Amino acid sequence: MMSAAFTAMSIKAYYVPYPVHPERLEDALKGLAAAGCLGLNVTIPHKESVFARVSERTEIAQKAGAVNTLLWDGMQWIGHNTDVDGWWSSVKSDFSIQETKRVLLLGAGGAARAIVTALAKYAPGTRVQITSPSGKAVNWIHPFSRHLEVNFVSWANRHQDLDSYEWIINATPVGMWPNIDESPLEQIDGLHAGQIVQDIVYRPLQTKFLLDAKKQGAKVLDGVTMLAGQGAESLQFWLSAPAPLLEMETAARQALLSDNSRSSK
Q1: What pLDDT is recorded for position 68?
Q2: Integer Cα distance of 265 and 249 in angstroms
Q3: Domain containing 102: what range?
Q4: 116, 198, 232, 236: which sits with the fewest CB atoms below 10 Å from its CB?
Q5: Into how many domains does the chain fold?
Q6: Are residues 54 and 105 in the same domain?
């Protein structure tokens, strides 16, 4: 995806994965800065740890309480969160046509908080029910109550009133490869046509959660559009130039489809 963007932008650059053990995170950040790395994306399990380690953060990262993007300014790493606008770009065309906005958000980690931050920014007044097996949401939902009607629901009660939500979003890693037979919802009778069900997991493209929702008649959104959206936001943060979003999403889908094909053999 990023390589396709570099090609479209005629930029000579490289985007490569670096597995980092949590205990070596500080060393990794120092080493990548010393090696001349311009920017980084950060994923599970480092988003909240990096947030605590950087001394300068953008306003949106501060509100989201997590950092998934870093920019080296020559002196320090600057923390940013591109999940917020990346997620909104993946739903805004559908979300704007909803007359009633009642959202069930499955998960309470960094991605879930980014989604709530986006709703507070772009869709104030939305009613959001957050549920997580960890109970983690109670630690951060209160500041958002100024812009949203936000409440925490116990994980055991997440199936109650499923039919009353316009949106159901999975922001947990449940169902991510290799655990493709898992879903954050065990009971799907409440899902129905007219609902929009989104999974931010993108590997596999069609998770069990989405396949179950599709069988019930719901419209489903996979995680690739958010992936491409946050990637484009990252590029713009690093380079101060527009990113080729369409080329990025196309490349991501092609790569994931190829990956799914290999995995099924």
Answers
A1: 94
A2: 25
A3: 84-223
A4: 236
A5: 2
A6: no
Residue 93 half-sphere exposure, CB side, CA atoms within 13 Å? 5
Q: What is the pLDDT of residue 86?
A: 97
What are 84's two structure tokens?
């917020």
Cα angle, residue 76 at apex, residues 245 and 46 outer, rounded to 5°:
60
93 plus 213 within the same structural domain: yes
Say whether 190 sits in a helix, a strand or coil: coil
Q: Do 46 and 139 belong together in one domain?
A: no
Compute the distance between CA of residue 66 and CA of residue 54 in angstroms, rounded to an integer. Answer: 11
Q: Tell me how far apart the alpha carbons of residues 126 and 108 are, in angstroms, rounded to a whole number.
A: 17
Q: Does residue 258 belong to any structural domain of this protein?
A: no
Q: What is the CATH number of the domain that holds 196?
A: 3.40.50.720
Asked if the structure places residue 251 within a domain, the reply is: no
* Residues known to be catalytic: 47
Which stretches in the chain have pLDDT values below 70?
Answer: 96-100, 136-137, 260-265
Q: How many CB atoms lie within 10 A of CB 24?
A: 11
Single out the residue of 197, 150, 199 nearest to residue 170, CA to CA: 199
